[in-house]
Write a structure and sequence with these properties.
The chain is built from 17 helices and no strands. Helix 5 packs antiparallel against helix 6, helix 7 packs across helix 9 and helix 12 packs parallel to helix 14. The chain is globular. The N and C termini lie far apart (50 Å). It comes from Monosporascus ibericus. This is Transcription factor domain-containing protein.
Length: 401
């Protein structure tokens, strides 16, 4: 997916030197339409780079994109191939418009034919939806997702598609949770989605935040265990996760979190502000593990707006909050600042961080980090931006004072 891949790869923070292509990696790959040499080179580059982005090599074993059923659908289908000519510029060029119009025409033909709910048809519509996500056209992406939902229902439901083509079935589910974070509610019911979390070693002994809600401790413990599992893979050299199992775990946790309180509905947490801020912070944490089809996590405006409002309300009431509440507030500030809240748009983050650290007697980064690691915190993803957030707050302290 030429342009989409380049946007996805080049705009991903922390992207490092690309993997060297070998002569026989993709030299025998054929495409459904003729590609010029530059497009062919970019397509080949994508197959390797995108696997590292979707399935982080720190945590996941190597995923053979070339042999995956999903890629086979894309390579075999002309409509998908047309959609692959995405531009990485903010605007849409005449070349991209030409190819996307061709793609729509071919998809319409496919949907009106005898293979209207085939793997290739589903893959083509998924690709169109991804295209709209990249270009921040979320309402159009939602229309495509609604179409996908109906196609999958005609196919026998998402559970059947998971049995027949797991790699393909995970794509519309991935789109569903991303759009749910943007628009408020998922299309697929969580109890009908056959995804399961990878089992951790369940040895996490960190103190659980206080809450009266029955759902809270179960989900927080599972998110903590998953973070611990990822840290173990990266730091301790344990056997890495199967890439599709990694994706399933993300989806499982996200569907459970969204099901507790969909963002598009009024908030009515039984534990009040405490549970509300913890729930939103866990969603923000999960976005840092979620592969991004769009440009960055700033597209999660609904989540960021809810977080900003809830954090400020929680901060106002924190004068009488015990240390456990302050610890939760500190983690929420940091995990929000490294995910969906941008420092330049939320100047108050630095003030709240400094004030909360002072109340917890935390005056250097190692002490702050130890406190943050009591909550879901993935070292390789969060340490560097977290430290930058701390140092930025320190630099701004004279202005704040």
């Amino acid at each position: 997916m030429t342009g989409m891949a380049l946007q996805f790869i080049n705009q991903r923070s922390g992207y490092s030197k690309p993997r060297q292509l070998l002569w026989n990696d993709l030299c025998l790959t054929s495409f459904p339409q003729q590609l010029d040499p530059e497009s062919t080179k970019l397509m080949h580059r994508w197959f390797f780079d995108i696997s590292d982005v979707l399935f982080p090599p720190q945590f996941c074993s190597k995923f053979d994109m070339v042999k995956s059923i999903w890629v086979n659908c894309v390579l075999a289908d002309e409509a998908s191939s047309y959609v692959d000519f995405f531009e990485r510029k903010p605007g849409i060029s005449s070349k991209a418009l030409y190819h996307i119009s061709k793609a729509y025409g071919l998809v319409n033909l496919k949907l009106s034919g005898p293979e209207s709910v085939s793997d290739n048809a589903i893959a083509a519509v998924v690709t169109l939806a991804i295209y709209q996500q990249i270009h921040q056209q979320h309402s159009t992406g939602l229309i495509h997702l609604n179409g996908l939902y109906r196609m999958i229902q005609l196919r026998g439901g998402i559970a059947r598609l998971m049995k027949e083509n797991r790699a393909l079935a995970l794509k519309p589910l991935r789109l569903d949770v991303e759009l749910a974070l943007q628009n408020g509610s998922p299309l697929f019911r969580s109890d009908a989605v056959p995804v399961n979390a990878v089992s951790g070693d369940s040895r996490t002994t960190k103190e659980q935040p206080r809450s009266t809600a029955p759902w809270f401790s179960h989900i927080m413990l599972d998110v903590l265990n998953f973070a611990s599992l990822l840290n173990g893979r990266e730091r301790e050299g344990r056997t890495k996760l199967d890439p599709l199992n990694y994706t399933e775990t993300l989806l499982s946790l996200l569907y459970r979190l969204i099901d507790v309180a969909p963002l598009g509905q009024p908030r009515s947490m039984s534990g009040g502000l405490y549970d509300d801020v913890a729930h939103l912070a866990m969603l923000a944490f999960m976005t840092t593990l979620l592969p991004e089809y769009g440009r960055d996590r700033s597209s999660y405006l609904l989540l960021s707006n809810r977080l900003e409002s809830t954090i400020q309300d929680f901060h106002v009431t924190s004068a009488d909050t015990p240390d456990s509440g302050l610890s939760l507030l500190l983690w929420t500030l940091f995990i929000s600042g490294v995910s969906v809240l941008k420092r330049e748009d939320h100047w108050w983050l630095s003030f709240f961080i400094l004030e909360t650290c002072e109340r917890l007697d935390l005056y250097d980064w190692p002490a702050v980090r130890r406190q943050l690691c009591e909550f879901p915190w993935v070292y390789t993803l969060h340490d560097v931006p977290g430290r930058y957030l701390w140092e930025d707050a320190q630099r701004r302290s004279p202005e704040i004072a």
